[in-house]
Amino acid sequence: MSNHDLPKRFLNGFALLVACGVVVLIGLGGLVTSHEAGMAVPDWPNSFGYNMFLFPVSRWVGGVFFEHTHRLVASVVGLLTIVLFVFTLFIEDRKWVKWLSGIALVAVIIQGVLGGLRITQASPVLGLFHGCLAQGYLALVATIALVTTRFWRRLEPVSNWRELSRLRFWTVFVTGMIFFQLVLGTSMRHAHAGLSIPDFPTVYGGFLPPMDAASIAEINEARAALIPPLTPTTAHLIGLQYVHRVWAVVIVVGLIWVAVSLIRRRQLPAQLRFGAGFWVFLVVVQFGLGIWTIWSNKAADVATAHQVCGALTLTTGVLLSLILSTLLGRVFSPGSPQSTDPLEFMRA
Q1: pLDDT single digits (tens) 258-281
Q2: Are 295 and 171 part of one and the same domain?
Q3: What pLDDT score was predicted for residue 109?
Q4: Residue 131 sits in which domain range?
Q5: Are residues 188 and 282 in the same domain?
Q6: Are 44 and 116 in contact (CB under 8 A)?
């Protein structure tokens, strides 16, 4: 390993560290939501009037523990992102990677402000945007970690670009489906309505959700009689959870089909095919955690694991899409032995 490679390897390792920190942060955010502790600390950026970093440990109890810990880890991740940006400016020689790092810095600042405004404004809508941006931020930092690897720099073009283009399209499409699913899941979590559909695989004993007013009134009467009572639900929330379930099945089928197609293409890099296999593993675990969330009556740790696994599933899809796009781009790059007429590509 040359001295020139050492700083680049360090940058890659640091970007990976930041990405792992974001995963931890998303998990802590999930615990905050699962324990309904988002307003446990009612002020921001202070904590009960204290400087956030000087808040007495003796008062880290109940929901305050989850919310305050989330704030502290978020501050650490923000600081690490600043350091990553500085390291990238000095170590990285590709301008577009420097821009990515700058975008990550802006994103983490916006994320912190959204988190604070969600508290000061007591706005579930801001909480929704806060949760969705966290998923995108993880994918962005993971992208920086990917593009600073030796593997990325040594990617070689592959043959059969028409097939590669088709696989890239479906990988991107399924990744988009996963993001939409995470938006649905985030909407459900921030509605704080518990399990609007408490059984699985059936839906209140059937296969279609009851949506009429009489059925909703009967459901809410039963929810109120439980100990402890559950928050009343609505036809909208029942429909939202039903769509979330159906969409999950569609994603599992589509993702496995695409991933298996990637694994079977021996001309693709081994790392890409391994990533496709890991993608299948993640979506199977994610589906199982979703079922367990229902059967455990939305246990906080299970629901949080479901959220974190969803973030990892999305990020893996983003990284696979980027690798395929890069392989396809290099097929058409000037001087590539696999280069072909762009007009021919448009006519295909």
Answers
A1: 999 999 988 889 999 999 999 999
A2: yes
A3: 94
A4: 1-154
A5: yes
A6: yes
Q: Write out the DSSP string of 107-156.
A: HHHHHHHHHHHHHHTT-HHHHHHHHHHHHHHHHHHHHHHHHTSHHHHT--
Q: What is the total count of domains within the chain? A: 2
Same domain, 84 and 194: no
- Final residue before a domain boundary, out of 116, 137, 154: 154
Asked if residue 247 and residue 131 are part of one domain, the reply reads no
Say what the pTM is. 0.89
pLDDT exceeds cutoff 70 at 320? yes
The first and second tokens of residue 187, run together, are: 């909407």
Closest Cα partner for 18 from 103, 91, 78? 78
- Residue-wise pLDDT tens digits, 18-62: 999 999 999 998 888 888 777 788 888 888 888 888 889 888 888
Q: State yes or no: pLDDT of 339 exceeds 80.
A: no
40-72: burial string, b at 16+ Cβ within 10 Å, e else: bbeebeebeeeebeebeeeeeeebbbbbbebbe
Partners of 47 in beta bridges: 50
Q: How far apart are CA 182 and CA 341, in angstroms?
A: 39
Query: Which of 154, 181, 204 delimits the end of a domain?
Result: 154
- What's the length of the chain? 348
- Looking at the structure, do residues 115 and 213 belong to the same domain, yes or no? no
220 shares a domain with 118? no
